[in-house]
Amino acid sequence: MRPEASFMELDILSLRKEFPVLDQAVNGHPLVYFDNAATTQKPKSVIQSLVDYYSGYNANIHRGIHTLAEKATRAFEETRESARQFLNAAEREEIIFVRGVTEAVNLVASSFGKMVLRPGDEILVSGLEHHSNIVPWQLAAEALGAQLQVIPVTEEGELDLQAFEQRLSKKTRLVAVNHASNSLGTINPVKHIVERAHAFGAYVLVDGAQAAAHLDIDVRDMDCDFYCLSGHKMYGPTGVGVLYGKRSLLEKMPPYQGGGEMIKEVTFEKTTFNDLPYKFEAGTPNIADVIALNEAIRFIQRNGKAAIRHHENELLGYATTRLQKVEGVRLIGTAREKVSVQSFLLEGMHPFDVGQLLDARGIAVRTGHHCTQPLMDRFGIEGTVRASFAVYNTRDEIDRMIEALERISSLRR
Amino acid sequence: MTIEETQKAIIEEFSLLDGDREMSVMYLMDLGEKLPPLADEHKVDFNLVKGCQSKVWLIAELKKDRVYFSADSNTAITKGLVSLLIRVFNGHLPEEIVSADLFFMKDIGMDRFIGTQRSNGFAAMIQRMKQHARSFQPQSDVKA
Fold it and tell me: Is residue B142 scored above 60 in pLDDT?
């Protein structure tokens, strides 16, 4: 351990062995998986946790009095406590399990939107947002007579904070912004955004989908009103995510969906609702995946965000330097602070074609608009090739991508 | 050449690539580059083939009872794909196109090197071309 570092450097080659999917050939080449911003691969502990649940103690939770139900309930609620610690939320009641960020934003836009939005109010979203943090607000705005405003993006792919300031007003009711951009990797100054929004009496939702696997998250320090993440982008299973909301707000919000779990008492005349967090968890939840999410959190904690980020930053720096030297490559997104995502274009070629040729060499990248069409419009492009790195990626893998790109670039010229 | 003969010629050309994915994709892109570009006036939403992830504009005309397609795309691979179909169909009678059995894609293992999404897009192109051919058939021949 170096004296200045507060973490151990990770042994990536042994860490890779925890991910069974990485050990395979694709189209005759060892798999290089650079599509981590879309979904990360899963360590054995997460996969085993799913197997253990279904083969050992599958049961419906909360109201069962038998032993299996008890065990499943305990494991489920343990994840809630882990998620609370992961986000540094004050109380477990502030942690709501959802399917992912999309559902979390829809829940807030629908329930909280109904509660606070009035005709003439403004919702401020950023130009870096994923469609899942745009469309629910458009729907809410349309239903409630509010207006959508946009924080513009600079040429480097950063939010224009001066323009943000200008757009804030007493009409601003809500600001929705991501912690990190899925297309460009830009890390947004969320604490500053929250502070400024609160100064105008606006609430803030932060989409943490691209931050959860990489950055330290402290919702109390950030002081955001809502924060959400998706399990599958942080080494966990698909179909599970977390919505954090301040207790004072969650308590006042009307339920999002009705059904079992979320009620206290039901008569045909009137239904009273359950306490937090269950008020927002109608129906049998995704028990298995919630339980397995705990293992994903443990995987991140075991390795440490500082060590993960250190490795990923090295990969990003290396990839960016090498990409810039490939003939015809244009980088999209050069913000000063980024998570390990690099978008680029190869001159004269459509991203789909580049992606297909990389796939022929076993290299998985994402191509297209990455569900951020307004952002692509901002740059006047249809889409990008996006390489996104996770803790298990290596410099050798980046070398292989660069080699393939150099070959494509020379053959197509 | 009949539709069947053209397909056999395509299969033979691809067999020289030995199933190599990268070479096959590159070859498709080369084919695409040889396709004459469509005039901008035809690159309108009306001519877009629905069901393709890439943009594919397709137009058809009837000259002396024979159908001629022209197409363009924003991606090189897709341009190559549609150029194969144009090569197979162009200069044939509407009924030949409507009743054509296309087998070359399977023989060259196309879905292996272009993936499911593009395969679906490719199927959409075929469907659109057959629709065009059907619209050129005399009314009495059109089955309800």
Answer: no
